[in-house]
């Protein structure tokens, strides 16, 4: 399978959203850029901020859409067109209600599971054949509480767990960049 050339963190722009659960995708690409010493640049033609990193000897573009979550696909598809990157060479990192904090999972293809950034990207691509990094944020217990939950900040303990899951995902990322997704998936820690 092709390796990764583009990693998109899904989130909402603006300081008021900075540390919310919904911005787990931003948190992931920001941690990746920081670890690589990469600088973010505003790129208006791609509707977001971009950074370039080296992972496993490959150049990989990082993208943070500035479009708000429900319009993320506009930025994702613009970047794919501009850099001539196929959907299957793309990883979208996003918050995942169905996984507990501290859990990160890689997945290829599938539906959007109610995640609006994925929904918009799938709508514009016409399919879901791209990689996802699902960063667990837990579920508030009832569907009526989901909006406030995802747009809220995690507890101190959950924040530590989410950060740990992001670190775990960064550790296995070189395998994914080289196209060895099954090994990368196997090495992500299983929750106790």
Could you give a short description of this structure?
The protein is α/β, with parallel strands linked by helices and 192 residues long. Helix content is 36%, strand content 21%.
Salient structural properties:
Rossmann fold; single chain; seven-stranded mixed sheet; 7 strands; 21% strand; globular; 192 residues; alpha/beta
Q: Can you tell me the residue ranges where pLDDT is under 50 for at least 5 consecutive residues? A: none
The major sheet is characterized as: 7 strands, mixed
Shape by Cα distribution: globular
What's the tally of helices? 6
Q: How do the helices and strands follow one another from N- to C-terminus?
A: EHEEEHEEHEHHH
Please identify, by name, the CATH architecture.
3-Layer(aba) Sandwich
CATH domain class: Alpha Beta
Q: What does this entry look like structurally?
A:
The chain has 192 residues and is α/β, with parallel strands linked by helices. The chain has a single domain, classed as 3-Layer(aba) Sandwich (Rossmann fold). Helix content is 36%, strand content 21%. It contains six helices and seven strands; from the N terminus they run E-H-E-E-E-H-E-E-H-E-H-H-H. It has helices spanning 24-36, 72-83, 116-125, 146-150, 156-177, 181-187, and strands spanning 6-9, 41-43, 48-55, 58-65, 90-96, 104-108, 131-136. A seven-stranded mixed beta sheet has the order 2-3-4-1-5-7-6, with helices on both faces. It starts with 5 loop residues before the first strand and ends in a 5-residue tail after the last helix.
